Structures
1.
Amino acid sequence: MSAEVEAPPKDRGSGHVPGEPGLWVFLLGDMVVFGIFFGTIMVLRGTHTEEFVSSQETLHLEWGVVNTIILLTSSLFVVIGMHLAKERNPKAPRFFLAAIVCGLMFAGVKAVEYTSLVQDDHTASVNDFYTYYFMFTGIHLGHVVLGMGALLAATRIARPTSTGTHRMAALEGIASFWHLVDLLWIMLFATLYLVR
Amino acid sequence: MTTELRAPSAPVQRAMAWCGVAFCVIYGAGILIAGFIPPPSPDDNATEISQFFADNTGRIRTGTLLMMLGGATMIPFFAVLTMQMRRIQGRFDGLCLAQLLAGGIAVWVFTLPPIIFAVAAFRPGQDVNVTQALNDLGWFLFVWNLGTVTCQAIVIAVAIFSDRAEHTGDGDPVFPRWVAYLNIWVAIGFLPGALLTYFKTGIVAWDGLLAFWLAAVLFFTWILVLFWATLRAVNREARSPQAHASKTGVPA
Amino acid sequence: MKTLMARSATKGSAIVWAALVIFTVISFLLGGEHLIDNKTLAAAIVVGIAAIKIRLVGLHFMELKGAPVALRAAFEGYCVVLFVALMGIYVFA
């Protein structure tokens, strides 16, 4: 690893940055971009309220709730995995693996939702609501896939035998990205499925 | 091996880096003068588009001229960026080659749209459908070019992440790692624009919030950050000449 | 000793997780079952709960509660600005 992250993460009185400082340029930047997405959804709700609400009712709210809880649970697995990895507990990798399984479940539920909507002719080209729904949840799903790749790497890095001075920094970075995936979904779910 | 690849003098490299700022100023001014802010809607009919070009012929000709010339200022900028990327590995490697290729293509990505727009404004009395088709082509080339730019951003990010600070001479990486993260953010932010072929209105139409406005902000932020990081790298290299000379002798 | 610390930290995270799940169910009942007649109030609660959940994930899961002030402020500022902006759009758009 490069010299920039050579210093192992430590408390410098002022506090500890999870992962490495540069990572937060990306994480906060991504949050801003998704903030624009959320705002766009709210503008559509205000300007095309009837179309918005009637389209929203065709979404599968229960599956959205299930997916929210799946992601929250995956985040908890990642947190536990981090605690165990810190003390080089050999059980740490399986918690990251459990988070990956949650990610796969999330993607599976999303696939069922997409299929069901398309079968009911609620495709992205019907109106702006469906366009936004498919586009924003699709971009989010891309984050989920990216995150699962990173978690797969984490299952190796978290092994007690793994070396490298940046072991914890790398794990913190991956964990932070996965939590980002979780928190972006929280507001995406609220604005697409719940706000009327 | 690596001693043959001598860097050009720091003043030349600095001037080449400043070309990135020149690009933002000249190209940005060209876009404004041509009246492309805000862009004409893809939903406008052929007569409206034709009228836009007929009413603004002088502006469009002047604006596109600036854009066409401004695009060329990225040639020295991407060259010096590649030079500095070379210092990461201590030699010219695959990522540098990819960056150089992407940079060369990007210059055409910047240059082709003004040429098309200038052609559209060339014969104001012509068939409105021809003007509309040229306008469509211009905007597609202008906004729907994210493939090469996204690839370039990812290449630069991977190169920065791969920096082990072994060849810089001062023990620090050539570029700060946050620049790599910014490149990834930019690459992701460009992606919604990929959908613009499907829409004539809304946020991913070529005049939309995501495809145009967000992409424009990300793009100019990206170029200016790369400029800053490149200039910083040039200055740091210039400040540690001995360290640099002794290190480059080591086989990469 | 270390294991004990990890165990109590895990316990704390589990409590945060439980709170997040309860919040999810509450907003599901409000948004899905329309328990509140006032639409703006219901929207404010749904968006507000989401913002609080984001803050909980950031502070406790991303461990931003121990981060430098600037980073923590940027994150919490995001939660506040997001809530205000979305509700501003809701009311005025």
2.
Amino acid sequence: MNFDTMTVGQIARMVSEKKISSGEVSKMYFERIRKEDKNFRSYITVCEEEKGEPSGRLAGVPISIKDNICMKGTLTTCASRMLEGYVSPYNAHVVDRLSSEGALITGKTNLDEFAMGSFGDNSALFQTKNPVNVNYLPGGSSSGAAASVAGGMCVAAIGSDTGGSVRIPAAFCGLCGFKPTYGAISRFGLIAYASSLDTIGIVTRNATDAKLLSSVLFGKDERDMTSYDVNIGECEIALGDIRFAFSDKDLEDAETEIAEVICRVRDLLLRAGASCVDKTLFGNAKSDNAYRVLACAEATSNLARYDGIRYGGKSGLDVLRTREELFGEEVKRRIEYGNFVLAKENFEKYFKAAADERTRVIKETEMLFEDVDVIISPLCDFSVPTYSNASSCRADRFTVAANFAGNPAISITAGRDKNNMPVSVQLMSARGCDAKLLSIAEKLEQLLLKEGAV
Amino acid sequence: MNYEAIIGLEIHAELKTRTKLFCSCKNEFGGEPNSRICPVCTGQPGTLPYVNGEAVRLALRACLAFGCEINRTSKQCRKHYFYPDLPKGYQISQRETPLGISGCFEFISDGQVKCVGIEQIHLEEDAGKLVHRSDGKTAIDYNRAGVPLIEIVTSPELHSAQEVRDFLESVRLRLLRTGVSDCRMEQGSLRCDVNVSLRRAGEAVLNDRVEMKNINTFSGAARAVEHEIERQCKILDSGEAVLAETRKWDDEKRESRLMRTKETAVDYKFMPEPDIPAYVIDEKALTEAGYDIPESDVHRNIRYEKAGISRNDRERLIADVDMSDFFDGCISSSQNASECAKLIVGDVASLLTRENVTLSQSRLTPGMIVEIADLIVSGSLGRGNAKVILSKLLKNGGSVANAAAELMSIDDDAVIEETVKVIIADNPKAVADYKKGKENAVTYLTGQCMRSLRGRANAERLKTILLNELKGEN
């Protein structure tokens, strides 16, 4: 078995055609994890247990779960000392869905503490390495999710995306990262960072796998009132028929190598017959700030429950000292900012203004998508950073917009830089048009492959 | 110096739903600590609230019952504070767009109809409870966490302790009659905070208000108000200013204690609840919530007054939901409503207390009361006998006619014997016929006895006694 290229589709087929048993797949993957994960450290908890012969569309398919998603009877840490030793008493919706389709859940993966971070260097537990090249950052916050797939220690990973947390690590690790429409997948069991922005996301090798997993995970769930039915059926659209937005403005600050890759994607699409409009949604400082205000305000609220009484309680400290000692610096910074913008005297000026800006952006986004099928942009306008040069970069410039307006977005590998690190393109589409987005991404991947770009 | 007291109330009532506000745990009282909890109502990481439609319906019903305008788009918000019994670190409540606003509620105090504005009614969740154990440790019981509550916020339009008490009692009856809450004070399902401020009589300017918390009974509310008015009077008389603050009422010691001042006030950092979409209240929801809201008690009072019910009887009927409902069953079919009212608040009430049963457990029906009232008014039945009949009917049911007949039958053998002796003495010929063996002489004598007893004796019993007497003649 070639762990480095294996996909969800391939394993599902092999198991259903009885070319291999799910037990054998399980044995091979846990063996692989034992051998490889000491190098990459993607897993916080490995869930190796004997199970019967499963059935379903994902029978025997090894999938990892980000450790901010609950699994009954399993440690759920959010990579924070605050939740050290916390065992969830219930299953998240996505865990139930995967299990009911026979998936093999391999374990719980590392992340930036409480999903706060873009580089995968903010876990309170340990550092996850980028399997493409361990000298580079894995990306975050779903660092372990991406590393577990890239390292061949599962074929797909479930993560969460609040501002790019699935798309960024997928891009850094040369994978496909899909953030669906807000509400398409139930958040029940996803430990909240910023509830109105949080989305369950999927890391796979390609868009075809993302589509397969979406068809399992999508759908209204009683337990999440913000969830609803988003169509994930077949959507046939030829690349020649699409109309996309693309703007050179998005490339103004981009490294040359990145700009070249992205322009090449544009040219390929144009050559295929697609039409292009010069428009963009990205790089609006006002809306990016508004995103940050709302994200931090909601984080402050969501993290209020960690008061040292029910969690982190073994420290024997009072509320303030528990929070001071058990939350990491980045988490505390965001809580502090959230407290500031929620304070009675600041609410109008910051929170209310940000909420108004969001309403405006949603309208603007909707209007843009009346004209185009997708927006094409870099996923990130710099090369995958190493440990030393990350701090100066802003990785979420192109990713937060999809969360802010609730749209689906996907990152796929479109080329390699001179260090042979992956360079990714982002495709974003209208809310509810996930099936179309995935279909376009799938075709673009095939085109890029055919053209030898990747 | 003369002052006018300005009082506003915040009343919390637990809604009478089957399950909690955001999960399917039972909404009940008591039981083993933490026996009705789940990951959602204990705020476990990753859980989300799912709104109980029945709670929204009851909250809307309350809004309609208190004359509120309905916000057609209404949103939950988060109110943040740290307290061990608050599992999420915030309470899901409402602030900017509560379900109901600008209502008004009429009630009767001191025989007068008064009206108090309702600023808003909103839907929120209750917190758990701290249990201070005998070993000095404090435990947390989350059974109550997530129980649905409405908060009714009044305008500052009450002016005395008595008014506060009458208002609260009227609110309680309104909530009971509409089925919104069971208002069990002893279980804390109805609680209130009072805000008191004073101003010089005739002045328009309002002074800073003092909020009193921890009030568990209506009489406690009245005492707290009285105490606070007195306290503020003294401060103002001494030339000082009353400061805006929150105080905790201790009903046992009859004193209040400072909790926090304006400077140390908590900033609740209100924020819209992102996990719950705004409620969109349409006509259908309004109809479902309010189509059968009963009349107001002020209206009920007028209706009873028109039916000729005395003030005392009206007050007693209105104060008891079961009794007034029962009485309404009489009033529609009776020519003698005031007699019915008298019977219900008098004999029926005292019999129920004596038998320790409720009206619905008893076998009384409104129709029985109507019949008895008619008999009393027509002079055929005395009040004493009426009570005896009621007592029988309450326990055994049956018809008024049978119960009345039973009451009037003579079952005292001595009375029958007396009559038999007189009849035997008065009819020597018939007695002689009997001795000759003429059987119909017995029939004749029985008839004579029965006539003399006005038919109120048991025929079998009479025959036995008569035969005994006749044999004794030998």
